[in-house]
Amino acid sequence: MTLYGQLLEREKEGNPIKVGVIGAGQMGRGMVAQISTIPGMIVTGISDLNIEAAQKAKEAFNKSSKAKVDILTTKDFKEVINSDEVEIVVEATGVPEVGAKVCLECLLAHKNVVLLNVEIDITIGSLMHKLFKSAGLVYTGSAGDEPAEVVALYEFAKSMGMEVLVAGKGKNNKLKVHANPDTAKEEADSKNMNAHMLAAFQDGTKTMAEMNLLSNAIGFKPDVAGMHGISGDLDSTVDQLKLKGEGGVLDNYGVVEYVDGLAPGVFVIVKGQNEGVKEELNYLMKKGDRDRHILYRPFHLASLETPTTVAKVALNNDTSIVPLGKPISDTVAFTKREIKKGERIDGIGGYCVRGLLETHDTCIEERHIPIGLIAGETIAKEDIPADSFLTLDNTELDTSTTVYKLRKLQDEFIG
Protein backbone atom coordinates (compact mmCIF):
# COMPACT_ATOMS: atom_id res chain seq x y z
CA MET A 1 0.00 0.00 0.00
CA THR A 2 1.25 3.50 -0.76
CA LEU A 3 2.02 5.99 1.98
CA TYR A 4 -1.05 8.01 1.01
CA GLY A 5 -3.16 4.87 1.12
CA GLN A 6 -1.89 4.11 4.61
CA LEU A 7 -2.74 7.64 5.75
CA LEU A 8 -6.26 7.25 4.37
CA GLU A 9 -6.59 4.03 6.37
CA ARG A 10 -5.57 5.83 9.58
CA GLU A 11 -8.11 8.54 8.75
CA LYS A 12 -10.85 5.96 8.14
CA GLU A 13 -10.04 4.22 11.42
CA GLY A 14 -10.21 7.50 13.32
CA ASN A 15 -6.66 6.87 14.52
CA PRO A 16 -4.54 9.73 13.17
CA ILE A 17 -0.79 10.00 13.71
CA LYS A 18 -0.37 12.42 16.61
CA VAL A 19 2.52 14.83 16.11
CA GLY A 20 4.29 17.01 18.65
CA VAL A 21 6.25 19.97 17.27
CA ILE A 22 9.19 21.62 19.04
CA GLY A 23 9.75 25.06 17.54
CA ALA A 24 7.08 27.28 15.98
CA GLY A 25 9.30 29.48 13.85
CA GLN A 26 9.14 29.66 10.07
CA MET A 27 9.75 25.94 9.52
CA GLY A 28 7.62 24.72 12.40
CA ARG A 29 4.57 26.83 11.64
CA GLY A 30 4.74 25.95 7.93
CA MET A 31 4.72 22.25 8.79
CA VAL A 32 1.86 22.64 11.27
CA ALA A 33 -0.19 24.41 8.59
CA GLN A 34 0.58 21.62 6.12
CA ILE A 35 -0.48 18.85 8.50
CA SER A 36 -3.86 20.49 9.03
CA THR A 37 -5.15 19.14 5.70
CA ILE A 38 -3.29 15.80 5.56
CA PRO A 39 -5.51 12.73 6.11
CA GLY A 40 -4.62 10.48 9.01
CA MET A 41 -2.36 12.98 10.80
CA ILE A 42 -2.91 15.74 13.36
CA VAL A 43 -0.82 18.03 15.55
CA THR A 44 -1.44 17.51 19.26
CA GLY A 45 1.36 19.53 20.87
CA ILE A 46 3.42 22.64 20.04
CA SER A 47 6.28 24.03 22.12
CA ASP A 48 8.10 27.33 21.67
CA LEU A 49 9.78 29.75 24.05
CA ASN A 50 7.64 32.37 22.34
CA ILE A 51 4.26 31.10 23.50
CA GLU A 52 2.48 33.48 21.12
CA ALA A 53 4.16 31.74 18.18
CA ALA A 54 2.94 28.38 19.48
CA GLN A 55 -0.58 29.75 19.90
CA LYS A 56 -0.61 31.22 16.39
CA ALA A 57 0.50 27.87 14.95
CA LYS A 58 -2.31 26.18 16.89
CA GLU A 59 -4.86 28.68 15.59
CA ALA A 60 -3.62 28.26 12.01
CA PHE A 61 -3.97 24.47 12.30
CA ASN A 62 -7.52 24.59 13.59
CA LYS A 63 -8.52 27.21 11.02
CA SER A 64 -7.78 24.74 8.20
CA SER A 65 -8.46 21.41 9.88
CA LYS A 66 -11.80 19.66 9.32
CA ALA A 67 -12.03 18.90 13.03
CA LYS A 68 -10.80 21.14 15.83
CA VAL A 69 -7.99 19.65 17.90
CA ASP A 70 -7.23 20.54 21.51
CA ILE A 71 -3.53 21.18 20.91
CA LEU A 72 -1.23 21.49 23.91
CA THR A 73 0.82 24.71 23.66
CA THR A 74 3.67 25.34 26.08
CA LYS A 75 7.10 26.88 26.53
CA ASP A 76 8.40 23.58 27.93
CA PHE A 77 9.25 21.05 25.22
CA LYS A 78 9.29 18.27 27.81
CA GLU A 79 5.53 18.63 28.26
CA VAL A 80 4.97 17.97 24.57
CA ILE A 81 7.40 15.06 24.37
CA ASN A 82 5.96 13.34 27.44
CA SER A 83 2.31 13.91 26.54
CA ASP A 84 0.29 10.73 26.08
CA GLU A 85 -1.36 12.51 23.13
CA VAL A 86 1.93 12.78 21.21
CA GLU A 87 3.05 9.79 19.16
CA ILE A 88 6.03 11.25 17.29
CA VAL A 89 8.13 14.40 17.78
CA VAL A 90 9.42 16.86 15.19
CA GLU A 91 12.36 19.02 16.32
CA ALA A 92 12.27 22.29 14.35
CA THR A 93 14.27 24.80 16.39
CA GLY A 94 17.56 24.79 14.44
CA VAL A 95 19.43 25.31 17.73
CA PRO A 96 22.05 22.62 18.49
CA GLU A 97 21.78 22.82 22.29
CA VAL A 98 17.99 22.61 22.22
CA GLY A 99 18.13 19.79 19.68
CA ALA A 100 20.48 17.81 21.92
CA LYS A 101 18.13 18.13 24.88
CA VAL A 102 15.09 17.27 22.78
CA CYS A 103 16.76 14.12 21.44
CA LEU A 104 17.67 12.97 24.95
CA GLU A 105 14.15 13.64 26.21
CA CYS A 106 12.69 11.66 23.29
CA LEU A 107 14.95 8.74 24.16
CA LEU A 108 13.80 8.82 27.78
CA ALA A 109 10.15 9.11 26.73
CA HIS A 110 10.60 6.38 24.09
CA LYS A 111 9.38 8.60 21.25
CA ASN A 112 10.56 8.61 17.63
CA VAL A 113 12.02 11.90 16.41
CA VAL A 114 12.13 13.67 13.04
CA LEU A 115 14.69 16.45 12.75
CA LEU A 116 14.22 19.77 11.02
CA ASN A 117 17.45 20.68 12.78
CA VAL A 118 20.39 19.94 10.50
CA GLU A 119 22.67 21.72 12.95
CA ILE A 120 22.28 19.11 15.70
CA ASP A 121 22.30 16.20 13.26
CA ILE A 122 25.76 17.09 11.92
CA THR A 123 27.10 17.53 15.45
CA ILE A 124 25.90 14.39 17.26
CA GLY A 125 23.86 12.52 14.65
CA SER A 126 26.08 9.45 14.57
CA LEU A 127 25.63 8.92 18.30
CA MET A 128 21.91 9.71 18.31
CA HIS A 129 21.12 7.39 15.42
CA LYS A 130 22.95 4.55 17.17
CA LEU A 131 21.24 5.19 20.51
CA PHE A 132 17.77 5.46 19.01
CA LYS A 133 18.29 2.33 16.91
CA SER A 134 19.50 0.41 19.98
CA ALA A 135 16.33 1.50 21.80
CA GLY A 136 14.10 0.28 18.95
CA LEU A 137 13.30 3.86 17.97
CA VAL A 138 13.63 5.91 14.79
CA TYR A 139 15.87 8.96 14.49
CA THR A 140 15.82 10.62 11.08
CA GLY A 141 16.32 13.82 9.16
CA SER A 142 13.44 15.25 7.19
CA ALA A 143 12.21 14.97 3.63
CA GLY A 144 11.99 18.33 1.90
CA ASP A 145 15.33 19.57 3.18
CA GLU A 146 17.96 19.34 0.43
CA PRO A 147 20.08 16.55 1.99
CA ALA A 148 17.22 14.06 2.10
CA GLU A 149 16.12 14.94 -1.42
CA VAL A 150 19.65 14.41 -2.72
CA VAL A 151 19.71 11.04 -0.93
CA ALA A 152 16.47 10.14 -2.74
CA LEU A 153 18.10 10.95 -6.11
CA TYR A 154 21.30 9.14 -5.12
CA GLU A 155 19.42 6.00 -4.12
CA PHE A 156 17.25 6.24 -7.24
CA ALA A 157 20.42 6.17 -9.38
CA LYS A 158 22.21 3.52 -7.32
CA SER A 159 19.17 1.25 -7.32
CA MET A 160 19.49 1.20 -11.12
CA GLY A 161 23.17 0.31 -10.86
CA MET A 162 24.48 3.69 -12.01
CA GLU A 163 27.71 5.26 -10.87
CA VAL A 164 27.19 8.53 -8.97
CA LEU A 165 30.09 10.97 -9.35
CA VAL A 166 28.85 14.10 -7.57
CA ALA A 167 25.88 14.89 -5.34
CA GLY A 168 24.71 18.32 -4.31
CA LYS A 169 22.33 21.26 -4.23
CA GLY A 170 21.76 24.72 -5.57
CA LYS A 171 22.51 27.57 -3.19
CA ASN A 172 19.43 29.64 -2.44
CA ASN A 173 21.16 32.87 -1.37
CA LYS A 174 24.16 34.76 -2.71
CA LEU A 175 27.14 33.94 -0.52
CA LYS A 176 27.96 36.74 1.93
CA VAL A 177 30.59 35.18 4.18
CA HIS A 178 30.58 38.04 6.70
CA ALA A 179 26.78 38.32 7.03
CA ASN A 180 25.44 38.80 10.55
CA PRO A 181 22.05 39.47 12.16
CA ASP A 182 22.43 43.22 11.68
CA THR A 183 23.20 43.04 7.95
CA ALA A 184 20.43 40.44 7.48
CA LYS A 185 17.77 42.20 9.57
CA GLU A 186 15.99 44.22 6.88
CA GLU A 187 15.58 41.26 4.54
CA ALA A 188 14.68 38.96 7.44
CA ASP A 189 11.94 41.33 8.61
CA SER A 190 10.52 41.54 5.08
CA LYS A 191 10.32 37.73 4.93
CA ASN A 192 9.07 37.25 8.50
CA MET A 193 12.26 35.33 9.29
CA ASN A 194 14.62 35.28 12.25
CA ALA A 195 17.66 37.43 11.38
CA HIS A 196 20.07 34.87 12.85
CA MET A 197 18.58 32.17 10.64
CA LEU A 198 18.88 34.29 7.51
CA ALA A 199 22.47 35.22 8.41
CA ALA A 200 23.28 31.50 8.64
CA PHE A 201 21.87 31.04 5.13
CA GLN A 202 23.75 34.02 3.74
CA ASP A 203 27.14 33.30 5.29
CA GLY A 204 27.08 29.76 3.89
CA THR A 205 26.80 27.89 7.19
CA LYS A 206 23.47 26.33 6.28
CA THR A 207 24.78 25.11 2.92
CA MET A 208 27.87 23.64 4.58
CA ALA A 209 25.72 21.93 7.19
CA GLU A 210 23.32 20.52 4.62
CA MET A 211 26.12 19.06 2.53
CA ASN A 212 27.71 17.79 5.75
CA LEU A 213 24.52 15.88 6.51
CA LEU A 214 24.50 14.49 2.98
CA SER A 215 28.17 13.53 3.25
CA ASN A 216 27.55 11.59 6.46
CA ALA A 217 24.58 9.80 4.87
CA ILE A 218 26.19 8.60 1.62
CA GLY A 219 29.93 8.64 2.35
CA PHE A 220 30.88 11.35 -0.16
CA LYS A 221 33.41 13.97 0.97
CA PRO A 222 34.01 17.64 0.16
CA ASP A 223 36.64 17.85 -2.58
CA VAL A 224 38.22 20.85 -0.84
CA ALA A 225 37.42 22.65 2.41
CA GLY A 226 34.25 24.66 1.83
CA MET A 227 33.64 22.89 -1.52
CA HIS A 228 34.14 24.68 -4.86
CA GLY A 229 30.79 26.48 -5.03
CA ILE A 230 30.78 26.93 -8.79
CA SER A 231 28.20 28.96 -10.70
CA GLY A 232 26.33 27.39 -13.59
CA ASP A 233 23.23 25.96 -15.20
CA LEU A 234 22.47 22.27 -15.66
CA ASP A 235 24.74 21.82 -18.69
CA SER A 236 27.70 23.85 -17.43
CA THR A 237 27.51 22.15 -14.03
CA VAL A 238 28.12 18.80 -15.69
CA ASP A 239 31.07 20.27 -17.60
CA GLN A 240 32.63 21.96 -14.57
CA LEU A 241 32.20 19.14 -12.07
CA LYS A 242 34.72 16.90 -13.79
CA LEU A 243 38.25 16.04 -12.77
CA LYS A 244 40.88 18.67 -13.50
CA GLY A 245 42.46 16.31 -16.02
CA GLU A 246 39.12 16.24 -17.85
CA GLY A 247 38.81 20.03 -17.94
CA GLY A 248 36.86 20.46 -14.68
CA VAL A 249 37.57 21.71 -11.16
CA LEU A 250 37.59 18.48 -9.14
CA ASP A 251 40.48 16.55 -7.68
CA ASN A 252 38.24 13.57 -6.91
CA TYR A 253 34.86 12.03 -7.62
CA GLY A 254 32.54 10.81 -4.89
CA VAL A 255 32.12 14.37 -3.61
CA VAL A 256 29.41 16.71 -2.36
CA GLU A 257 29.04 20.17 -3.91
CA TYR A 258 26.84 23.25 -4.13
CA VAL A 259 26.14 25.32 -7.23
CA ASP A 260 25.06 28.93 -7.55
CA GLY A 261 22.40 28.87 -10.26
CA LEU A 262 20.57 25.61 -9.57
CA ALA A 263 18.51 26.74 -6.57
CA PRO A 264 16.09 25.63 -5.27
CA GLY A 265 16.91 22.24 -6.78
CA VAL A 266 19.11 19.25 -5.95
CA PHE A 267 21.14 17.01 -8.24
CA VAL A 268 23.38 14.02 -8.81
CA ILE A 269 25.76 13.54 -11.72
CA VAL A 270 25.72 9.95 -12.96
CA LYS A 271 27.41 7.62 -15.44
CA GLY A 272 25.76 4.58 -16.95
CA GLN A 273 27.32 1.34 -15.77
CA ASN A 274 27.80 -0.21 -19.24
CA GLU A 275 27.58 0.71 -22.91
CA GLY A 276 23.93 -0.31 -23.23
CA VAL A 277 22.89 1.95 -20.38
CA LYS A 278 25.05 4.84 -21.62
CA GLU A 279 23.46 4.60 -25.05
CA GLU A 280 19.97 4.57 -23.54
CA LEU A 281 20.77 7.53 -21.26
CA ASN A 282 21.92 9.57 -24.24
CA TYR A 283 18.70 8.74 -26.06
CA LEU A 284 16.42 9.47 -23.10
CA MET A 285 18.11 12.61 -21.75
CA LYS A 286 18.21 14.34 -25.16
CA LYS A 287 21.55 16.02 -24.47
CA GLY A 288 23.62 14.50 -27.22
CA ASP A 289 26.41 11.98 -26.86
CA ARG A 290 27.74 12.30 -23.30
CA ASP A 291 29.52 10.04 -20.87
CA ARG A 292 27.61 11.49 -17.88
CA HIS A 293 24.32 13.21 -17.13
CA ILE A 294 22.73 15.26 -14.38
CA LEU A 295 19.58 14.05 -12.63
CA TYR A 296 17.87 17.10 -11.21
CA ARG A 297 14.90 17.77 -8.95
CA PRO A 298 14.05 21.45 -9.52
CA PHE A 299 12.54 22.11 -6.09
CA HIS A 300 12.56 21.20 -2.43
CA LEU A 301 9.63 22.08 -0.22
CA ALA A 302 11.42 22.13 3.13
CA SER A 303 9.05 21.72 6.10
CA LEU A 304 6.04 21.19 3.82
CA GLU A 305 7.49 17.76 3.00
CA THR A 306 8.32 16.88 6.60
CA PRO A 307 4.94 15.17 7.14
CA THR A 308 5.94 12.53 4.58
CA THR A 309 8.85 11.58 6.84
CA VAL A 310 6.54 11.63 9.86
CA ALA A 311 4.28 9.19 8.01
CA LYS A 312 7.19 6.94 6.98
CA VAL A 313 8.36 6.74 10.59
CA ALA A 314 4.96 6.25 12.21
CA LEU A 315 3.59 3.80 9.65
CA ASN A 316 6.65 1.85 8.50
CA ASN A 317 9.52 2.58 10.94
CA ASP A 318 11.29 4.02 7.90
CA THR A 319 13.67 6.98 7.58
CA SER A 320 14.51 9.74 5.09
CA ILE A 321 18.17 10.40 5.91
CA VAL A 322 20.46 8.98 8.62
CA PRO A 323 24.23 8.82 9.18
CA LEU A 324 26.11 5.81 7.86
CA GLY A 325 28.08 5.51 11.10
CA LYS A 326 31.23 7.42 12.01
CA PRO A 327 31.09 11.00 10.67
CA ILE A 328 32.52 11.52 7.20
CA SER A 329 32.63 15.32 7.41
CA ASP A 330 32.30 18.15 9.90
CA THR A 331 31.19 21.77 9.59
CA VAL A 332 33.77 23.66 11.61
CA ALA A 333 33.85 27.21 13.00
CA PHE A 334 35.67 29.81 10.87
CA THR A 335 35.88 33.43 12.00
CA LYS A 336 33.97 36.23 10.27
CA ARG A 337 36.02 38.94 11.99
CA GLU A 338 38.92 39.35 14.40
CA ILE A 339 38.09 38.02 17.85
CA LYS A 340 39.91 39.37 20.90
CA LYS A 341 41.31 37.34 23.79
CA GLY A 342 38.66 36.90 26.47
CA GLU A 343 35.78 37.67 24.10
CA ARG A 344 32.67 35.50 24.21
CA ILE A 345 32.11 33.82 20.84
CA ASP A 346 28.55 33.42 19.59
CA GLY A 347 27.43 30.57 17.37
CA ILE A 348 25.50 29.79 14.19
CA GLY A 349 23.99 32.81 12.48
CA GLY A 350 25.78 35.23 14.79
CA TYR A 351 28.50 37.83 14.57
CA CYS A 352 31.65 35.79 15.16
CA VAL A 353 31.84 32.60 13.10
CA ARG A 354 30.49 30.83 10.05
CA GLY A 355 30.63 27.15 9.14
CA LEU A 356 33.12 25.60 6.74
CA LEU A 357 32.81 21.99 5.55
CA GLU A 358 35.84 19.70 5.73
CA THR A 359 36.49 16.01 6.28
CA HIS A 360 36.07 14.58 9.77
CA ASP A 361 39.66 13.35 9.68
CA THR A 362 40.91 16.89 9.02
CA CYS A 363 38.76 18.23 11.84
CA ILE A 364 40.33 15.78 14.29
CA GLU A 365 43.90 16.19 13.01
CA GLU A 366 43.81 20.01 12.98
CA ARG A 367 41.85 20.26 16.26
CA HIS A 368 39.14 22.29 14.59
CA ILE A 369 35.82 22.82 16.37
CA PRO A 370 32.44 21.70 14.98
CA ILE A 371 30.33 24.85 14.81
CA GLY A 372 27.46 23.16 16.67
CA LEU A 373 29.64 23.19 19.80
CA ILE A 374 29.87 26.98 19.85
CA ALA A 375 27.30 27.50 22.59
CA GLY A 376 27.01 28.89 26.09
CA GLU A 377 30.16 30.59 27.40
CA THR A 378 32.62 29.87 24.57
CA ILE A 379 35.63 32.16 25.09
CA ALA A 380 38.66 33.10 22.96
CA LYS A 381 41.91 32.10 24.71
CA GLU A 382 43.92 34.47 22.51
CA ASP A 383 43.46 36.99 19.73
CA ILE A 384 42.09 35.10 16.72
CA PRO A 385 42.41 36.68 13.24
CA ALA A 386 39.52 37.12 10.85
CA ASP A 387 39.01 34.30 8.33
CA SER A 388 40.74 31.65 10.41
CA PHE A 389 39.75 28.46 12.20
CA LEU A 390 38.69 28.17 15.78
CA THR A 391 40.71 25.39 17.38
CA LEU A 392 40.84 23.58 20.68
CA ASP A 393 44.05 25.53 21.29
CA ASN A 394 42.75 29.08 20.74
CA THR A 395 39.21 28.60 22.08
CA GLU A 396 37.76 27.47 25.40
CA LEU A 397 34.51 25.61 24.87
CA ASP A 398 31.67 25.55 27.36
CA THR A 399 31.91 21.97 28.60
CA SER A 400 28.68 22.25 30.60
CA THR A 401 26.42 22.17 27.53
CA THR A 402 24.48 19.06 26.64
CA VAL A 403 25.67 19.16 23.04
CA TYR A 404 29.32 19.25 24.15
CA LYS A 405 28.86 16.24 26.45
CA LEU A 406 27.12 14.23 23.74
CA ARG A 407 29.74 15.11 21.12
CA LYS A 408 32.44 13.99 23.53
CA LEU A 409 30.66 10.65 23.92
CA GLN A 410 30.33 10.37 20.14
CA ASP A 411 34.04 11.06 19.63
CA GLU A 412 34.92 8.47 22.26
CA PHE A 413 32.62 5.64 21.25
CA ILE A 414 32.08 6.14 17.51
CA GLY A 415 35.08 8.16 16.36
Number of helices: 15
Using the alpha-carbon principal axes, give the shape.
globular
Strand order of the largest sheet: 3-2-1-4-5-6
Alpha carbon gyration radius: 21 Å
| Percentage of residues assigned to helices | 25-40%
Mean pLDDT: 96
- Taken as a percent bin, the fraction of beta residues is 15-25%
The major sheet is characterized as: 6 strands, parallel
* Strand element count: 16
Query: Regions with pLDDT < 50 over 5+ consecutive residues?
Result: none
> N- to C-terminal separation?
40 Å
Class inferred from helices and paired strands: alpha/beta
Characteristic key phrases:
single chain; six-stranded mixed β-sheet; 15 helices; 16 strands; globular; 415 residues; six-stranded parallel β-sheet; alpha/beta
Produce a short descriptive summary.
This protein is an alpha/beta fold and 415 residues long. It contains 15 helices and 16 strands.
Question: Can you walk through the features of this model?
Answer:
The protein has 415 residues and is of the alpha/beta class. The protein is built from 15 helices and 16 strands. A six-stranded parallel sheet has the order 3-2-1-4-5-6, sandwiched between helices. Strands 7, 8, 9, 10, 11 and 12 form a six-stranded mixed sheet that branches. A two-stranded antiparallel ribbon has the order 13-14. Helix 6 (118-134) packs parallel to helix 10 (205-218). It is globular and about 60 Å long. The model has no long low-confidence stretch (mean pLDDT 96).
